[in-house]
Design a protein that fits this description.
6-stranded antiparallel β-sheet, alpha+beta, 306 residues, 2 helices, 17 strands, 7-stranded mixed β-sheet
Length: 306
Amino acid sequence: MRIPSSFIILAVLIAGIFCEESTTNPSTTLPTDATTLSTESSTSQETTTARVTTSEPETTTAQTTIAPTTTLSPTTTTIGTTSTKAPTTTTTTTTTKTTTTTPAPVTSTKSPEPPVPDVGSWNVTDDNVTCIRADLRIRFDVYLNDKTEYIVLSPNASSSGDCSNVTQVLEIHESDYSLVLYFGKDATSTYVKNITFSYTMPDNSGFVYNDTKLFPVKIGNSYLCSTTSNVILRNVTMEVYHIRIQSFGTSENKDFGTAEECEADNKVNDIVPIAVGIALLALVVVVLIAYFVGRRRSRQKGYQSV
């Protein structure tokens, strides 16, 4: 059988075209039960999967169309170096200078004890009659410029006076002070009616007095007080530690008359008899208790013998 030449040429052309297409786009003919066709491009840019499902035996040609090739430009990652300037921290150190003040030791200077006076005796005599007798123990507290100065009545101080029938005077003095007692009387008693005191000190001097009626006693008797008492003379306090005085004496009085004690001394003296009375009362109670206890025991012995 002779094949026409035109048919052969046509077949060659078709085969050439077919070969050219096969070279460019490989084709895969899937069998009837083929499910998936996977074609991978040589440039690894895109993969197209065709899945053909047939129910009858037939030949399916899956043609893969080559997508335009996209050339990926290399990804350039620029790692920027960020220089973060650390904040400048300025630390200000404040130095507090602590000044410790050590208090100076307190030196307690004990003020000297006030002087204690001694008993002195003075009298005033006129025409062999001693009209005034005085035993005194006195200290004067003089308050000047927020401080206290002391003047003690010296037992060796000089004395002078007056034995008048109305007012009698006893003056006791030394170079820096003078004490004057003025005595008066009425129908039944004698007393001190005025006291004056003058003093001279290096930085001050003064004159003070008290005209209160003091130390009253019956005429012919003496005033006695051994309890300390104070007589105020303005800015001076006369502290009387002991006093026994008598004025308007007569020729019959060779010594102090009967002593009339001050109330303060009487209160002290009253303590003694009260204490003795309490002791005697307690003794009586003890004796009575002993008597009744002994009597009761004797009765009990009598009952037991019966």
